[in-house]
Write the C-alpha cells for this entry.
Amino acid sequence: MADLTRDRGQIILLAAFALALTFVALALVINSAIFSENLATRGGTSGSGDALQARHEVEINVGQVIESANLHNTSTQTDLEEAVEKGTLNVSIQMERQRARTGTLINVTVRSSVDSPIFGSRVAQNESGFPGPHFTEDTTSSGTADWSLVDDVERDADGVNATRAFRLNVSKDDLADSGSSPFTVRVEEFDRSDPSPPSWEMGVWQDGSGSDTVVVEVTKPGGSSEECRTTVTKSYVEIHVTRGFVDDHPCDALRTGPGGTNYRFAAGVGDNYNITYRNGDQARGNYTFVTTNSTFGTTNTLNDGGSRTSPYITDAVYNVSVDLLYDTADLHYDTRIRVAPGESNG
Amino acid sequence: MDRAVSTTVSYVLSVAIAAMLVAGLLMAGGDFVSDRREQVVRTELRVIGQQVAADLGRVDRMVEAGDTVETARVNVTFPERVTGNAYTILIKETPQSRVLVNSSDPDVAVEVHVDTTTPLAESSASGGTVSVWYDDSDDELEVENA
C-alpha cells in the first residue's frame, strides 16, 4: 500500500492561505469605507461663514464711521474724507486684532476713486427739548408751512437711491388730528415747465386727538395709496422713511414701490426731484436726511451748517466703497463693499 | 480486502473533489471582495462629489454677497486615491449643472447636482488638494488642483 500518512491536506492548506489573503483584502476595503464615512461627517472649510460675517461687520462699522464723520467733521470735503479714512483704519485694525487669534488676516481700506467717496449734503433740524420746533421754514408756528427743502436732487436713473437716512422724530400730540391736511413730505419731479409733475407723498397724522394710533399714508406716483397704522405709547414717534420703519415696526407702505416691487426712495418720480414739506406747522420735532447733491437749484433757504441753527445744511459723505481682504489658510476673499447707511433696501 | 479499487484513482478523485470545492470557495470570496470594493468606491466618490458641490455653493454665496468680488477661493484637501485608485472631479454645465466624479478601475461614475447663481465653467481636477475659485474675468466658478 502507498504511504499516504505524511502529505495529507496540501490543497486545504493552500485554500486556507488564499482565503486569508482574501479576508485581508476585504479588511482594507472596509477600512477605506470607514474613512470615507468619516470624511463625510467633517464640516466644510472653516472660515467661509466667518468671511460673510466679516463682510457684514465691515458694512455696519464703516456705516457708523460715515455717520460720525457727517456729524462732527463737516467743515470741508477734505476733512470728511480724512475722517472716513481714519475711522476705517481703526475698524480695520480692530477687526485684524480680533481675528488674528484664530489665524485669519483681515484688511479694510477705503477706495479712492471717482465713485468713492461720493459727497453730498446733510439737512437737519436738530434741537433739544420737547416737543421741539415746528417743521416750517423758520421753525416757528407761523412760518411758511409749505416750503421746499432741497431742489434738483439728481440721480443716475429713476430706480437708484439719491437720498438716505431720512429720519423724522415728531411729537405725537402735536400732529394733525385727522388726514384732511396733515404734515406731508412731498417729493416731486424737478421740472418747472410741468404744472403737475409726478409726485410721491407721505402724510403723518394722529388718529384723533389724544389717540395712540399714528397713521402714515403714502401716495405713490400714479395715485395709489397705502397706509400703515402703528400704536405708539411714547409721547414721540420715530419714522425712518428710507428704511421703512415707524417706531421700530416695519411699515409696508414705505417698503413697496409703485409696481409692488422693492422700494427705492421716491421711485417713479423721475431722475431729478425736489423734497418739499406741506403743512409744516402740523408737526413738531427733529428731522434729518442725506442726499447726493452738494449744490441745489433755486430755492435753498436752509441755514449754513457752520452755525448749526435749525434747519441747516452741511457737506456730508453720501457713500463710500471699501475693499475687504479676508485670508485664512484655506480661503481667500477679496471683495468691494458699497456702504451707504440708512438707504432703502440697503 | 478491497476489490477493483486502485489507491491512485481514489487519491486523484479525493484531490480533485477537494480542489473543486476550494476553487469554488475562492471564486465566491474573490467576487464578494470585489463587489464590496465597488460599493465602497461608489460611496467615497459620492462623498467627495457632495463636498465639492457644497464648496461650490459656499464660493457662490461669497460671490453673491459682495458688490464686486475680485477673488474668492476655497482650498479643500481630499484623499489622493480611493481604495487605491486615482479619480477625477469634473464640473459640467450641460444639460444641467452637476459635479461628476469618476474612477477608472473599478469603472464607477457618480453625479451630484448643483444649483448656483453664478454660472459654472467646465473644468476638472484630480484627487488631492482641490481649489474651488471664482474667475473674475469670466464671472464663473471653476475647479482646479491647488
User: Anything to note?
Assistant: The first strand of chain A starts at residue 105 and ends at 110. The mean pLDDT of chain A is 85. Chain A is about 25% helix and 30% strand. Chain A touches chain B at residues 1-2, 4, 11-12, 14-15, 18-19, 22-23, 25-26, 28-30, 32-33, 35-37, 39-40, 44-45, 48, 51-52, 55, 321, 324, 329-338 (CB under 8 Å).
